Amino acid sequence: MVWLPTASAEYRLNIRVNGIHIKGSPFTAEAAAGSIDPSRSTIKGEVGPVQSTCRAGDTVRFTIEARDQHGNLANYPPLDRVKYDFKVTVGGPGAVSSPPTACISAPPLIGACTKGGIEAPPFRAPCRAPFERRFVADCMHALSLTPAPVHACARACCSQVDVDKDPLLNGLQPVGLPFQIVGEYWVEVRGQCGKLVKGGRFKIECLRTPVEARFCFVPDVSTMGASGAALKKAEAGRTMSFDIESRDPYGNRCEALPELQKLPNCAFSLKLDFREGVNDYGDETIIGENRAYDEAKTTISGSVAALEELGTFIASYKVLRAGKFALSIEYNQAPLRGSPFTLEVVPGPAHAKACMRLHCADSKAPLPILVAGNRASFLLLARDNFNNPRLVGGETTLQAGLVAVQGPEKVGCDIVDKGDGTYEIFYSATVTGEYMCSVNLNNEPVKGAPFKLKVQPGPTHAPTCIVSGFAMKTGQLDTLEAFMLEARDALNNPRGYGCDKVVCVIKGPGGKPPAPFEDDPRFSERSATVRDCEDGHYELSYCINTIGRYKIYLSIADAADHNPPQPLRGSPFDLAITGNRASAKESKVKKAPPKATAGEEVKIEIDEDRDCDSLMKIGTDWH
Q1: What are the percentages of helix, strand and coil residues in the chain, rounded to 5?
Q2: 528 vs 510: CA distance, rounded Å
Q3: Contact in structure between 589 and 484 (CB atoms under 8 Å)
Q4: 332 phi and psi, to 5 degrees?
């Protein structure tokens, strides 16, 4: 008699002969599950089918239901052990042609092992069923994943993963697959004979993690790379750009949620907090100009745009004020890793229209009056297009050839680079008059240039003063005679105004002699009358009642000079006083005039008939 059960259960066997139970009938028999048949084993997820999608870092869990050829769950008693190998193959990003495998094993059930299995437990009553010697198996699973190459910051994800250690719990074996690399994976579960488990081939797609502030970072900040440098140092007025990357802990690029991607600047925001400004030389030195930066210069103007590569954004910003700032970057109102960043904004290139004179209320105000022959200077502050002081020197385009004083004469200027963004420009002139001082940077005049400059004469200098008039040499008896004195400075510039100390003494025969010649009749001293014309000219007049030859002692001193007057060059001058005027009839030409050309001035010497011998030079145009 053969009994072939198909389901694992406890049975009650009734054996009758001619309707009568044999001795011991009915018998109680327990049928255990047969050998594991992979084609009949099944896989189930935690809720329904195995989930087809997950996020990086998630663990997909499913359960292998070990069944025999009749579909019975291999729910062996807990004290039994079984040894059976399931092969789980996982392929995905970076997988090679021969997918990696993992041996899934469990300790054998208690019993005598034969041919990789064990003898089935005996019935409680003798039974010669076909399954008297059955081999059953269950599994414990160990999973090995070979991922695609990952970012350097990702953790190694090629490791053994422990699973449930109790493979005999009702014939169920839970398996967990931790996914770390984004991509599409395929999973195969096969028995040790190579047969595919029922439903043992399926796909799992590991999706990208949504962009979060804690996953965002700016690359190369610590190494000052091309992108990170823009968060360390910027130039005022220049658009700076840097990259923002969003990666999960495993190195996968994150993906922005559609609702956040549509927000302005992709839900990113850039904020600027002013901490320290550059030296602006204070309001007291830059008089008349408001150095307080408006809000637009102390805030940041920027934008963030998503690039084609997922999880990557490019941020651009521009700051107009130089100084040190705290730059905060937020995503969806949450700060990024490392935010706020310390940002130093340096001044931009020097801009001519922004460069200005220091200590000057009006940029177009003329330079201080210069005394001829003296050397003066003014300070020029180099600034960028946004009025930030440069703070460093080396403006090669600000050269001596581009700074000059032009007027009655053209003179060059000397430039001294102070090394702190200021330049001292020295200039001088020897000729009085109105000048223009031009200062050019990059072939463009600086703010307020050219500057007006007035050069006035220096103190009166006696040796360069000039006298003119016939009365300097000859005079008529008892006649008021006059000649002119023009005051000039040491550089021969006309003084242009009066108030000088002029002393004119005429010495000769007659009158009261000066001491110590009071008793000497050969000497007398007379003072000429001096009239100040207030334009640098002085009229000197005298009236002498004694015929003879005299000496004119002429000296002059500046009104501000406390020294005594100094004699003019050529002083004393000879003076002849005659008794009557020259007679035309008695006068004669001493020397015949030479040939002359029309329009040329000819000098003719004429002897005059006077009481005292003297010669007079008369200028005549020869026609």
Answers
A1: 5, 40, 55
A2: 15
A3: no
A4: 55, 45
Q: Are 15 and 21 in contact (CB under 8 A)?
A: yes
Beta-carbon neighbour count of residue 323 at 10 Å?
A: 21
Nearest-angstrom CA–CA distance, 329 and 245: 13
CB atoms within 10 A of CB 386: 17
Q: Measured in Å, how far apart are the chain's first and last C-alpha atoms?
A: 174
Instruction: Give the mean model confidence (pLDDT) for residues 538-555.
Output: 91
DSSP string, 209-255: PBP-GGGEE-TTTTTT-TTGGGGTEEETTS-EEEEEEEB-TTSPBPB
- When mean pLDDT is compared across 81-95, 171-185, 279-293, 306-320, the lowest value belongs to 279-293
Q: Among 177-191, 219-233, 243-257, 583-597, which stretch is predicted with the lowest mean pLDDT?
A: 583-597
Residue 260 has pLDDT above 80, yes or no: yes
Residue 201: CB atoms within 10 A of its CB come to 14
Mean pLDDT calculated for residue range 71-95: 67
> How many angstroms separate the CA atoms of 617 and 619, rounded?
7
Residue 370: per-residue pLDDT: 93
β-strand 341-346 against 356-357: which pairing, if any? unpaired
Verdict on whether the full-model pTM lies above 0.70: no
Are the C-beta atoms of 436 and 450 separated by less than 8 Å?
yes
Task: List, for residues 11-32, the tens digit of each pLDDT value.
Answer: 787 878 777 878 777 877 766 6
Q: What are the CA-CA distances from residue 557 to residues 138, 501, 552, 593 (Å)?
A: 128, 5, 17, 43
Peptide bond connecting 26 to the previous residue in cis, omega within 30 degrees of 0: yes
**Concatenated DSSP letters for 370-398?**
EETT-EEEEEEE-B-TTS-B------TTS
Q: How far is CA 404 from the centre of its chain?
A: 33
Q: Which amino acid is at 579?
A: G
Per DSSP, which regions of 533-600 are E strands? 537-542, 548-557, 566-567, 573-578, 588-589
Distances (CA, A) of 549 to 240, 525, 575, 577, 614: 91, 13, 6, 6, 10
Torsions phi, psi for 432 (to 5 deg): -70, 155
Q: What type of residue sits at position 485?
A: L
- Pairing type for strands 615-621 and 356-357 reads unpaired
Rounded CA-CA distance 557/495 in Å is 12
Look at residue 614 and tell me whether its pLDDT is greater than 60.
no
Question: Please, are residues 549 and 574 in contact by the beta-carbon 8 Å criterion?
Answer: yes
Q: Would you list the DSSP string of 68-136? A: BTT--B----TT------EEEEEE-TT--SS--EEEE--PPPSS-EETTEEPPPPPSS----GGGS---
- CA torsion angle for 33, 113, 83, 188 (degrees, to 10)? -80
Q: The tokens 């001491």 sit on which residue?
A: 515
Interacting residues of 153 by C-beta distance below 8 A, sequence separation 6+: 247, 249, 251
Whether the CB-CB separation of 271 and 328 falls below 8 Å is answered with yes
